[in-house]
Amino acid sequence: xxxxxxxxxxxxxxxxxxxxxxxxxxxxxxxxxxxxxxxxxxxxxxxxxxxxxxxxxxxxxxxxxxxxxxxxxxxxxxxxxxxxxxxxxxxxxxxxxxxxxxxxxxxxxxxxxxxxxxxxxxxxxxxxxxxxxxxxxxxxxxxxxxxxxxxxxxxxxxxxxxxxxxxxxxxxxxxxxxx
Length: 179
Description:
mainly alpha; elongated
């Protein structure tokens, strides 16, 4: 255990990778839905279907609904990572079947990464509602790449961004000791 994690307060690094695996699978489905749905559809006159679609059609697009669900899961992961569904599933169903972790990691970078995922997916959702073609599948694809890199290779782009911002003194500053 490293001192950076505060001893036992660190998290099992396999948990965020498990979560990223499920998230990347769902994002891949969303990219497919976005590429085959309203977000990229053309009209016979040669323009894009999305700007002409009603607000209700934009919201009820399956790609939008799935990305909205994923954005809400990102919100949950930021607000209460301990109770977020995929993390809870890992702790209850997967972690007991594994050997105890040999290392723990600081929970702040993965939590920040959830916020980055929320930001990227929220941009795609807002642009879909604004009628911008291709925005939703592009946002979903960007989130997919980041999530897949974490799941497959343990490379958490959001965590790396957190560490860069921490070195710059922007995030993760330790609170002053109480007097």
